[in-house]
Amino acid sequence: MLKYTPIEKLKKLKIMSVLVFADSSEGKFKKTAFEVVSYGKKVAEQLGTNLVTLTINGGDASELYTYGADKVIEVKNDLSSFNAKGYAAVVKQVAEAQSSDVVVIDSSVDGLTLAPLVAVGLEAGYASNAVALPDTSNSFVVKRKAFSNKGFNNTEILTDKKVIGVAKNSYGAHESSVSGATESFDATLPELGVSSVSIDKATGKVTIAEADVVVSAGRGLKGPENWGLVEDLADVLGAATACSKPVSDLGWRPHSEHVGQTGKPVASNLYIAIGISGAIQHLAGVNASKVKVVINNDPEAPFFKAADYGIVGDAFEVVPQLIEKLKAFKQA
Amino acid sequence: MKILVCISHVPDTTSKINFTDNDTKFDTNGVQFVINPYDEFSLTRAMWFKEKQGASVTVVNVGGAETEPTLRKALAIGADDAIRVNVEPTDGLLVAKELAEVVKSGGFDLVLAGKESADYNGQMVPGMLASLLDFNFVNGCVGIEVDGNNATLEREIDGGEEKVASTLPLVVAGQKGIVEEKDLRIPNMRGIMMARKKPLNVVEATGSNASTNTKNFEKPAPKGEVKLVDNVDDLINLLHNEAKAI
């Protein structure tokens, strides 16, 4: 019976480094960047290899050191914003230069756009939506969420090189400070093909994608004129505001706030649903959130079955009390 | 303009999800299959191009014969013809490689897909397809206009929208916004009758290797009972001390 020592096993797996792409926007790292660095660090430890973290026009590398990124490669170029072909080419060049056989990418919109291109470029198998560290005991198996959070798919990656897309807020960012070092890398950009004309971002508003807390409301709020309640509650919690599909279809709130299966997915730490009954498509879009609170005057609302905490009561009574008590709690 | 719309055949969004054969297969028993909702938004935009700008619209699916009713539905909505690549869609890269062959042999210059499928939610195939073909790629598209060889598009980004410009050929992964929900079409009787006579060509796969393999499926752990409270003090207390969410 042949037994492998860790080094022989490493040779068998032929993994030289784990490359993490830490996404940023306007020179600031996204929250998901810290999560993928934490994930990549563990994968590197598990495989007995090194972690390399790549940033493209990113933020202050010392922020990444906090999460264990001891080697940061900075690429600076004149791309003013994300470009799929451009970023994919940079990741590929760095992965090749660093002999990276595992590449870890986040599930920001950029990450999700980039990863399939990187996979083709590196001839790597790609497993998106990973919710756990890979099982590398025999082969390389990644647990992924599927069926709109109604199931998981354990996917074996068969190729030598592997790309893992980490689902948002599934692994978490874990501090593990190191004294890191930064290198710069000159990457060659291909013809970009798609050019950015303009970017329209709401400033000073917490986005659903980045929010730790999301406050969402449905038809139970009776009309758009009552949304002040939702916004006040969101303000107290530093939360993003969202709504159910009927509310956006009725034009009470913009489509960009619609969360659920065909709207935006939510994977926050805390999701508070006010006056939302909980249609199966809504639940599919939000049940990746860690803690769900439902406030509804109908005790039979299906959302209560999917919730962690609930108050059966009139939103117009409960929410103002909640705002007031939370203000006191935050000040305490 | 020659448009190809990629169609996934997926369980209706209200389906109960179960697995069989030691959790290695999705249980199709009692499941209604539909056009992937994300693809339907893109197909509807393609119909607009056909009617206003004289484009041709072909729909394609990679899958077994059981997906043909879904392709017929796309024909009933108004696509001109359909192609089915006869292989199990077990892996994103495998599907993208088969689609790339279809695009090359058909000379398509605009490929529209949904940004993800409602079953595996992988968000893999459109980007892989663009990369294999070396076409431009716009993901999360919520608006597209084409004028000759030039396209202007809006795409969703974290916290906002970006307007981009691209030339054809182009792969676009669409979502709600590329058309609105109210623009979606329910096939009428005439459409359904006509769809029966439209060509649905079955092509054999090129036999490329899969890069991944599903070992098995799991269902989420059963959720605990909801804790109902009757005042907001208790709620804040639980969220702070028990759930550690605030």
Protein model, in words:
The complex is a heterodimer of chains A (332) and B (246). Chain A has 332 residues and is α/β, with parallel strands linked by helices. The model of chain A has no long low-confidence stretch (mean pLDDT 93). Chain A has helices at 6-13, 31-47, 62-65, 84-97, 109-122, 228-237, 245-249, 280-286, 303-306, 315-331, and strands spanning 17-21, 24-25, 28-29, 50-56, 71-75, 100-105, 125-130, 141-146, 151-157, 162-166, 181-184, 195-201, 213-217, 240-243, 270-274, 291-296, 309-312. Chain B has one domain: Rossmann fold, CATH 3.40.50.620. Chain B has six helices and 15 strands. Chain B has helices spanning 37-53, 68-77, 92-106, 125-133, 189-197, 232-242; strands at residues 2-6, 9-11, 19-20, 25-26, 33-35, 56-62, 81-86, 110-114, 136-147, 150-157, 160-167, 170-174, 200-204, 212-218, 227-228. In chain B, strands 11-10-9-12-8-1-6-7-13 form a nine-stranded mixed beta sheet, with helices on both faces. In chain B, α2 packs across α5 and α3 (92-106) crosses α4 (125-133). The longest helix of chain B is centred in the N-terminal third of the chain and has 17 residues, at 37-53. The radius of gyration of chain B is 21 Å and the shape is globular. The model of chain B has no long low-confidence stretch (mean pLDDT 96). Chains A and B meet through α4, α5, β7, β8 and β9 of A and α3, α4, β9, β10 and β11 of B.
Keywords:
heterodimer, A: alpha/beta, Rossmann fold, five-stranded parallel sheet, B: 246 residues, nine-stranded mixed sheet, two-stranded antiparallel sheet, 29% helix, globular
Give the topology:
The complex is a heterodimer of chains A (332) and B (246).
Chain A: H1 6-13, E1 17-21, E2 24-25, E3 28-29, H2 31-47, E4 50-56, H3 62-65, E5 71-75, H4 84-97, E6 100-105, H5 109-122, E7 125-130, E8 141-146, E9 151-157, E10 162-166, E11 181-184, E12 195-201, E13 213-217, H6 228-237, E14 240-243, H7 245-249, E15 270-274, H8 280-286, E16 291-296, H9 303-306, E17 309-312, H10 315-331
Parallel strand pairs in A: 1-4, 1-6, 4-5, 5-11, 6-10, 7-10, 13-14, 13-15, 15-16, 16-17
Antiparallel strand pairs in A: 2-3, 8-9
Helix pairs in contact in A: 4-5, 6-10
Chain B: E1 2-6, E2 9-11, E3 19-20, E4 25-26, E5 33-35, H1 37-53, E6 56-62, H2 68-77, E7 81-86, H3 92-106, E8 110-114, H4 125-133, E9 136-147, E10 150-157, E11 160-167, E12 170-174, H5 189-197, E13 200-204, E14 212-218, E15 227-228, H6 232-242
Parallel strand pairs in B: 1-6, 1-8, 6-7, 7-13, 8-12, 9-12
Antiparallel strand pairs in B: 2-5, 3-4, 9-10, 10-11
Helix pairs in contact in B: 2-5, 3-4
